[in-house]
Amino acid sequence: MLKKNILVSPVVKWVGGKRQLLSDIEPLIPKxxxxxxxxxxxxxxxxxxxxxxxxxxxxYNSELMNVYNVIKEKPNELISSLEKHxxxxxxxxxxxxxxxxxxxxxxxxxxxxxxxxxxYLNKTGYNGLFRVNKAGQLNVPYGRYKKPNIVxxxxxxxxxxxxxxxxxxxxxxxxxxxxxGLRKGAFVYFxxxxxxxxxxxxxxxxxxxxxxxxxxVELRDECLLLHSKGIKxxxxxxxxxxxxxxxxxxxIFKVEVVKAKRNINxxxxxxxxxxxxxxxxxxxx
Length: 285
Known about the structure:
Helix content is 33%, strand content 15%. By secondary structure, it is α/β, with parallel strands linked by helices. It has a 7-stranded mixed sheet with strand order 3-2-1-4-5-7-6, sandwiched between helices. Strand 1, helix 2 (45-50) and strand 2 (54-59) form a beta-alpha-beta unit. Helix 3 crosses helix 6 (111-124) and helix 3 crosses helix 7 (153-165). The longest helix has 16 residues, at 213-228.
């Protein structure tokens, strides 16, 4: 086990990020893991906290996975591209950059340019929200921050070093592909788009496909399949009647309620501390 680098931390701001819940999640992590698997990687807070040496990470969001690939392969070029965004940062530049994925020329942009675009928009967009419309286009407004941290070269270089010193498989697409062929000893952490607890709290807009109740049922069935193979998993989700019902079989599932602060909601009075659940299928060590 290599010594963890404290500089390795999330490079994107992500709705529902798990940094604040790490103290609740970490005691539930098995001591021995052959392969760490995260099918909904998002901002990667738990991955970067644990820094496993062998991992499989996936996200349906191809823009996000491109960011991680570029950080691994071309960190210095990414930093140089971000520096240009920092120099030009303004409301006009933000909307011009945001509109690029509506243009035909977007397909001709390099992966480095696409990655720096996403990071720039993520750091300067309103409330760090990553949201797309049904056409898959970003639709977050400008955030008007005085000093956004656009070029975080220290963290980018640290994450790049971690990616290159570890055996990490990058996947892009349906989360189920990350579960194929797993064997006992692997550990899966699921952090799917949450079951909404109100109309205004639904943040399934990371990708244009969404993640509805039927998808939640499908995920529960995948958890049952993992359990039948003796594979340990942990899932984060909303504290909702639907989720509690889906995971009501106490012979298989253990459910813990935790408190999380959520600062992103379309309605200001809906922000604050809310209940979430951690669901797992093994005994604490």
